[in-house]
Every structure is written in structure tokens, then in C-alpha cells.
Amino acid sequence: MNIFADIEKRIVAALDALKIEGQLPDDLVLDGIEATPPRDPTHGDVASNAAMVLAKAARMKPRDIADALATKLAAEPDIAKVDVAGPGFLNLTFVPAFWQQAILAFREKGTEYGRTDLGLGERINVEYCSANPTGPMHVGHCRGTVFGDALSNLLAFAGYDVTREYYINDAGGQIDVLAKSAYLRYREALGEDIGEIPEGLYPGDYLKPLGASLAQQHGKALLTLPEAERLTIVRDAAIPAMMALIRTDLADLGIKHDVFFSERSLKHGNVDEVAATIGSLRAKGLVYQGNLPPPKGEPDADWEDREQTLFKSTQFGDDTDRALLKSDGSYTYFAPDIAYHKTKWDRGFARMITVVGADHAGYKKRLEAAVRAISDGKGEVDVQFCQMVRLFKNGEPFKMSKRAGTFITVRDVIDEVGRDPIRFMMLYRKANSPLDFDFAKVTEQSKENPVFYVQMAHARAKSVFRNVAEIFPDLTATSAAVTGADLTRLSDAGELDIVKKLAYFPVLVAAAARAHEPHRIAFYLYELASSFHGHWARGNETPQLRYIQADDKDLTAARLALVGAHAQVLATGLAILGVGAPEELR
RNA sequence: GCGCCCGUAGCUCAGAUGGAUAGAGCACUCGCCUUCUAAGCGAGUGGUCGCAGGUUCAAGUCCUGCCGGGCGCGCCA
Fold first, then answer.
1. Which residues are CB-contacts of A34 (< 8 A; sequence separation ≥ 6)?
2. Per-residue model confidence (pLDDT) at position A405
3. Does pLDDT of A398 surpass 90?
């Protein structure tokens, strides 16, 4: 159900009729015709570009096509007015009943209103967060995590079969650093004075409980073990401990992954999937021994020409070939990541999205190349970047120092501002734009704070139902009196404005899903809330416009149907963003 | 040097598959509380869409070249 798509079909039908009548060439291809809300609402309810896109192929003036089409459409009973404007825009104005009836459709669908079948049930894998298991999440992880989660919600709502995935980088050098850092905390827990944490190790206090638990479990036994053996034990305890911290943070942000995929699990038993993947690429002639040219520009004194095992990513559009093995023979980060993406392909995902930070910009092309290579061009990964978050406190930049261990954790931010404002603010911006996050502003309860503004629109709508209970106790949101109300009573322009915005919701969901841009939902909700607040305030001056009319139960019921639909769409949209839709804000 | 991202009102940002006179919030000016939540609403001021070409009936949007900013650029993940 999508009103605008229906109108497009009606326009096409009218054009077909014109063809039959000989007013248009009968071989004219009716393509690219749109029906959209006009930018200026005074132009009408719906605008179409039909005449202009067809003009060339029809070898006619746009105005002539528009005039013929206008005459045709004006004859339809629910179209009140058709104007031809500008170069050939067709502006349609529908009779109020057209919009009034639309509310029925909103209600019929309920929480499903806005859902589309765009994805056709196709499986899609969304990988996001994937913070290294070396400590709690810091605020920098937050944006991509929230983005990936909301994008997953959006795609699911748009008809995709979404799997949310977290890639645990538990096999790289940073894990050795973690183990060494944890071992130090273990010695500390045994009573040793460890002094300053050496440069290069993780100084954070969060490793202290891990040290203590190791001490409790092993006593002094680890001290006498050979280093390799001892670090293996520490590491195997540290990774789950760090993941437990991260999972707590994720839970508090309202984020749930379906799959936690361990990099280490790529090697199991005698199977090394990384080696196997490199082998399969080699079989395709995409792996070779060679030397990479140094980057141009500033000459690098440390540059050392060396032969490496390389992947021919240039064959798939990358700028340079990429190393798979380090000079000591171990894997680069890239090699297991290819193997990991191959498991996605093997698990039946032809479509993948990977959300990364802006500092991974250079990773996009090689990953796309790798996915094409392992899937013989049939698979596709969209690497989505989230730009940096700049932290502010009362307008002053807020610096993090990782070295001093004083970085801001997700926990700090949740404790300070709460989950809903974090999520909404992270999504109230295109992912590609840097984002300023001011602790003071996001907790403010005012119009300046869009989270609050949208939530208040929902709370207000709910308050109407609370208040009506005192006058018409039987007019509950789900009562037959409300769901079956006489909608022709809704005639005010402000009411119809809200209806028209609600009608646009399915179009918006589809567009946002197609573009992988959940922020559009946030902006839409703000606009919808604005229409609602505006109409509400008009009720302050003009009591007849208020939703509850004590002397007119039927009118009240009709208006409640609108309020209910409005609250429903707000709740649905907020759910996509993972933000709460509170009943009240007191 | 190369790649990716960004450049829109004084500030922070939207701008749908290319559509009409480019929008919102903040700031500034002026109205509105005997009120279903004024935690709000309305009106006004404010623009060479970084610059220059090109494609198109139509360009903030697409293409090319510049300028400015951010991120990255063979064994960090």
C-alpha cells in the first residue's frame, strides 16, 4: 500500500488511454513517471513530471501532453483539481475524502504500516560494531554501531532477511598486547607493585577484575610457566572477558547481533580457512609474489623494497594490489578478512554491508575487490563509512586520551545522557558527515533537541487518549467507535496535512532502505512531529480544532483515529531507529 | 603524488531516481499561556548552493578541471 505508487499507476493508465485515443504515439514508452509531494504545498497534493519526461520521445511540447493528461485526470471523481504549471508539471489536488480514507489504510496495517517488500526476502548480512575485544567500547565505536543497527532495522522493515553480525578480531597482534596487559594486572592482583603500565600496553583499569580473577583461579601458577604457554592461558580468559564488557555495552545501547563471528574460528582443527581462501584465489590466478611500488609524494626513508604475497585487487578496480602475507609469513589483517567474507558468501549472503569508521576509507576498494573475487562477481559488499564524532561539553571540545587511559566509554555516555538521545543524535545526520555531539545539548528538553521534540509528539498523542477517557471512556485507541469513525469529519487543513505526511511514510522507508540511509527516517519523524505540534498549537487559539470535543463524540472519534495513526507511525519510525516512544515525558 | 569523504543562510545541517520561487533548527526581531503538556506555536530577517566549464526541456544533485577542509595510502587492526 503506497498512495504515491497508486497515483503513478493511475497516471500511467490515463496515458495509456490517451494513446488509445490517438492523442499520444501508441509506441510511447511510459518510463520515469513519478508522483511525489510537491515542494510547495500550495501547488496541490501530488505533483507529476509525466509530461516532461515523455515530451522528447513523444515529440510533443510538455505543456500539450500535460493539458491532455489534465483533462483526462480531472474527470476522475476523487481528483478535485488538476493544474498544469511551469514547464509542464501536473499538480493534482484530491478531494478531502481521498485523504480521509487513507487513514483507514494506516489503521488496517497497524504496526505493519510502512513495511515494503523492496527486499523481496533476500538475505543480507550487515556487519557492524566489530570493536576489538581489547576493552570496553569507547564513544568512537558508538556511531557505526548505532548506524548499523538502525540500518538493519530499516532493511528488515523494507523486506530483507537481515542477519546482524559482529566480527571479533581476536587473532591479531592487539590480542597479544591485551594478554600482556592482563598478565600485568594478574601480577598486580597477586600483590606485586607493577608501577606504571609500560608504553604500548593497555593501561585501563578495566583489566583489574580480569587480573584478580586470574589470580584467584591460578594462584601463582602462571608466574612459572613459559611465556607462550602463560599468555595463551591469559588470552583465552581475556577475550571472553572483554567480549562480556562489550556485550553489556551493546545491550545497554539496545543492540543485538545474530552472529558473533570469531576471527580465530577461521582456523579449526586441521582446517585453516584463510589458507584455503588464499588457495582458491591462487587457483583463479589472483595471487602472486611481487613488489609494491612505494607511495608517491614525500619519499619515505624507511621504505624497503620487498617481495610479498599479493592479491590482484587491481583487477577488480582497486588502486594497487594488496598484501596477504607479512614478511614473516603470517597473515595481514586483510587475509583473514577475505576468508571471513568468503564464509558470508558460503553461508548464502550475496549481499553484504560492512559498516566501518572513516579511518578505514582505504579499505573499501580492496574489500569490494575481494568479495567480487571470491564470489566470481556474483556477490556484493557495500562498505559504509561513518565519519568521526567530535565530542563537546558546553561548546568546548572534549579530548580523549587513549594513552592516558582516559577515553570516554560508551558506558560514560549512556550514564550521562541516556540511550535514546545517543541513538537519535547519532542518526540525525548523514553517516558521511562528521558529527558534533554535545553532552549538554542532547540532555536538554527543548525544541533544540530533536529527540525530545519527536518523543514529545508521541507522548502528546498518547495524552489525548488519556484525557479523552474522562469524557468518553469508550473511545479507546482500539475501540470500534474510533477505528470505524466517520472520517469525513476530518476537514481541517492541519489535519489533512498530517494525513498527507503519514501517507508518505512508506515511500520514505523504501527510499531510505534503497539508499542505506537511516537518517532519513529521523528527519521525517521530526517533520511529522512538527506538523503535529503545529496543529496542536492552533488548538490553543481555536478550541474547535482540539482533538477532544466534549459536545461532539463523532468528531472526537474521527480525530482520535488520526491521532492514533500519527502515534503509530511515530512509534514505528522510532522503533526503526531503536529509540523509545514514551507514553509520557513528565 | 594517489584514493575516499565533505564544501548549501552568521552557526549546525536536510535537500528523495536531476524538477517549479533551494528548506529546517539555532541566533536575531515581533506576536501568542483563563489552554487536550507554552518542554510549545506563528511571522519576519538571512543564500553568487566553494570556483569555472559541460550534459539536459530542467543541475545544489550528473560529467570534467581547479580551490579549500577531513581521513587514509606495502608487514596496525
1. A8, A48, A49, A50
2. 54
3. no
